[in-house]
Amino acid sequence: MVNAKNPVQAVQRSLDIVDILTEREGARVTEIANEVGISKGTVHCHLATLEENGYVINEGDGYKLGLRFIDIAHHAKNRIDIHDIATKEVDTLAEESGEMALFTVEERGEGVCLHTAEGENAVQTEVYVGYRNELYHTAVGKAMLAFMPPAKRDRIIEETEFEAISPNTITDEAELRNELEQIREEGIAYNHGETIPGLVGVGTPIHDQDGGLYGAISIIGPGRRMNEERLTGELPEMIRQAVNIIEINSTSL
């Protein structure tokens, strides 16, 4: 995580307010003031400025995020060169596998989901466009960790606070590094219920023309459908084909 040397307090307070509105899906002035630890008058001034610029709206019973953020999100996604190419292939993966498929990129040491697609048998999860997750316990995250520059990988791992999110989560740095070495050899990463018990993921990285990383894509589904044949044959082959198409089409960007 990058820490500002001289953070502007007023800006930080506005961002804190936006975070609260995001987490709570709306809040009253009093709630925000208590959470941030500033006066209601100060909160109101921040909200008034945000409202004037379309970033929040007042619905009478409290404030909520404004639709201006949708416009910002659109432009943020468009800075990812392969976004349109990748989303098309992820849609195809979901349709052909019948499961959920994801396109994820790394930012500030976290995985950020940029697209999800659901096949006819897809499980319902909390993953959505913009969802952030640590890299060490997801298939897409480990795929990106394995193939990013060593110095960057070391920094992210060193800054990671390993947590046993499920009984299968890797919480030992040496064990994670051994798995990343195996992923580099095979080109495929797995998540065996490390994020959500019973949910299995298969992922692989997407490389740019210079060997760097664009991101990663994955297919996730319940363990009862993810038998050995699918995990070692069918799904990896489907993902590799999708990545091949993305990487070939990206050469013209």
UniProtKB/TrEMBL annotation:
SMART domains: HTH_ICLR. The lineage of its organism: Archaea, Methanobacteriati, Methanobacteriota, Stenosarchaea group, Halobacteria. Signal peptide: none annotated. InterPro entries: ArsR-like_HTH, GAF-like_dom_sf, HTH_MetabolicPath_Reg, Tscrpt_reg_IclR_C, Tscrpt_reg_IclR_N, WH-like_DNA-bd_sf, WH_DNA-bd_sf. Residues 68-252 form the IclR-ED domain. The keyword Iron does not apply. Residues 8-67 form the HTH iclR-type domain. It comes from Natrinema soli. PANTHER family: HELIX-TURN-HELIX TRANSCRIPTIONAL REGULATOR, ICLR FAMILY, HTH-TYPE TRANSCRIPTIONAL REGULATOR RV1719. One of its GO terms (molecular function) is DNA binding. This is IclR family transcriptional regulator. One of its GO terms (biological process) is regulation of DNA-templated transcription.
